[in-house]
Amino acid sequence: MSSPVIHFFETIDIQPDTSQAIYIQIAQQITDAIQRGILPAGSKLPGTRQIAQIIGVHRKTVVAAFEELNVQDWVKTYPNKGTYVIENNLAEQRPLKSNYSKKFTPPSFSFKQTHLFDLPDYPQKTDYFFTDGTPDIRINAVQQWQKYYTATARRKTVWNNQKWYLPHRKPLHTQLSNYLNITRGLRISSDNLLITQNAGMSLYLLTEILLDKEDTIAVAEKNYYKANMIFQKNGTKVKAIPTDKEGMNIDELEKICQESQIRAVYVMPHAHYPTTVSLSKTRRLKLLNLARQYDFIIIEDDWDYDLQYEKMSSLPLYSADDNDRVIYIGEIGKNLIPGYQTGFITGNENLIRTLEQFSHTFTQGENVLMQMTLAEMLEEGEIQKHIKKSKKIYQQRRDYFGYLLNEWFSEDFDFSFPHGGLAFWLESKNRQFNLMKISQKCLENKLYIPPNLLYQNQKESAMRLGFGHLNEQEAEKCLKILKETITEQSTKVKN
């Protein structure tokens, strides 16, 4: 019978298809086990050779993971003695994982466990932090929302009429379909639209209805990590397609289609996550042609279409689809009031009807009051005004953030101004930079950079830094801390 320590290493879950380095995955799971008490203080860890055999990786990968744990003071390696979990390593001393208690009590029942949905924690004691491109909750339309929400709630006809749930009574569907037709060139009616909680829920519903375990979905080589989580949890095979400055390489996709059956392609044509590049017009047209030729579905995720800064921006793929191959998902109103957002799915009427029936199995119905409020704000042009105002502010922030990057980071990173979205993609010119160590050092100076923003492996070293939530003073402070930290590490590397 294996010991509890050996048993833990037998449960380590490696995801080779993600952009995160394998040694980082191993180090993070060991850190979690220490914080949860699975690996108590003073425990001796198996040798790197034994762990490598258990996990099925190269010994050098485990050595790199141990080095990372030593640097972060989770373990200490003694020559000729072994590696031990450091004594008195209390969870409350670790702001990154302050929500974990030291003791871990196993449940009295079994359940499915996975590391697929692990997300970064935001430490409480930091003055500044980067995100992957979230909006600023201070730029909201709370007053306008409150005005329409209160008026709708007081309207007696809303509550006296019990027929609001009938299929033909969908004010938000009608107003949103009109809005999408005008602003994005779609040709839809309310019957082509399903309202969801957010884009993530939309993608989950589509995955459940469209994809089976034996199916293959093609995604960009560097892809939105939450989308990958949903596909992998469903058991769908994920095929990574190389990307470049024009987005997903459609020629490479065609080669794969010639060799095997692809059920669907997931694409973010505007400001792709994480690289922020847009799919070129030539590749858009070829992707549509391939979908018809090789009989696959295109899931077009366009969650930030309203935040495009170029006057002549490209319309969604859905607007040019004449063969019913594209399913279009997005969000509306996510920055009207903090924490509120509404997702939608646009597609064939039969598909929408099936999705609606499936969604009703785990929802109790629609939030009519919220939907009617959003519908009235669309009809009166309030949301359009808010988007226009917000986009102007975010474009100014993008320009200033880019100016600071040019001033301070042009020697260390390659980057370009994003045409849309709320983040920059920075590719390091110096492969010797250890981005994880840089983020740890920044944390000491009250700047938190979540690990999901760091992309470092043998092929690349890059970061995705969001600017939307930062005003000019905050952006300057964050980038100044980052610059000083990188300069310090560069000096150490040279010496």
Straight-line N-to-C gap: 49 Å
Q: pLDDT below 50 for ≥5 consecutive residues: which ranges?
A: 89-103
CATH fold title of the largest domain: Aspartate Aminotransferase, domain 2
Summing up helix and strand content along with how strands pair, one would put the structural category as alpha/beta
Report on the biggest sheet: 7 strands, mixed
CATH superfamily of the largest domain: Type I PLP-dependent aspartate aminotransferase-like (Major domain)
**Count of structural domains:** 3
Strand content: 5-15%
CATH architecture of the largest domain, by name, is 3-Layer(aba) Sandwich
The gyration radius over C-alpha positions equals 25 Å
Helical element count?
16
Number of strands: 18
Apparent shape: globular
Tell me what the structure shows.
Residues 20-88 form the HTH gntR-type domain. This is HTH gntR-type domain-containing protein. With 495 residues, this protein is α/β, with parallel strands linked by helices. The protein folds into three domains: 4-85, Arc Repressor Mutant, subunit A, CATH 1.10.10.10; 128-136 and 387-492, Aspartate Aminotransferase, domain 1; 166-363, 3-Layer(aba) Sandwich (Aspartate Aminotransferase, domain 2). It has 16 helices and 18 strands. The chain has a seven-stranded mixed sheet with strand order 5-13-12-11-10-6-7, with helices on both faces. Strands 14-15-18-17 form a four-stranded antiparallel sheet, with helices on one face. It has a three-stranded antiparallel sheet with strand order 1-3-2. A hairpin with a 4-residue loop joins strand 17 (454-456) and strand 18 (461-466). Residues 89-103 have low confidence and may be disordered.
